[in-house]
Amino acid sequence: MTISPETAAVGDTLPTITFGPVSRTKLALYAGASGDHNPIHIDLDFVKRAGLDDVFAHGMLSMAQLGRVATDWAGSDRLRGLSTRFTAITPVNATVTCEGRVTERFEQDGTPMLRVALTAKVDDGTQTLRGEALVSAA
């Protein structure tokens, strides 16, 4: 059963978004598109010198996908806030699953609102991001 923002209740889950695997090519393309050319994300020689095993995904790449959980479901015009916290790196070749769950329904200035808990996890279950979205339910 598909829920809508107007009918969503606390505990309802939003459609899941999965992306990946996060390839080196995708990281290079994202670096070019975003302007974030930090070598930690694209230069294997650099990360080896830094004592790491491999490059890892840009945090904002995963954050964008996490935000899509709310906007694909409710529409970008209903999004009133998005906050996230990075909790672990997203390794190269990982597949990321982004999920959302309604945790609160409340009124703000006379408008019905939803608070949605968001999480992103990689294949092995490691949570890489957590956050919340505020969505208008009107």
Automatic annotation (TrEMBL):
Recorded superkingdom: Bacteria
InterPro entries registered for this protein in UniProt: Fatty_acid_synthase, HotDog_dom_sf, MaoC-like_dom
UniProt GO molecular function: fatty acid synthase activity
SUPFAM superfamilies in alphabetical order: Thioesterase/thiol ester dehydrase-isomerase (SSF54637)
GO BP field: fatty acid biosynthetic process
Pfam families linked to this entry: MaoC_dehydratas
GO cellular component: fatty acid synthase complex
Record-annotated MaoC-like domain positions: 20-111
Protein name per Swiss-Prot or TrEMBL: (3R)-hydroxyacyl-ACP dehydratase subunit HadB
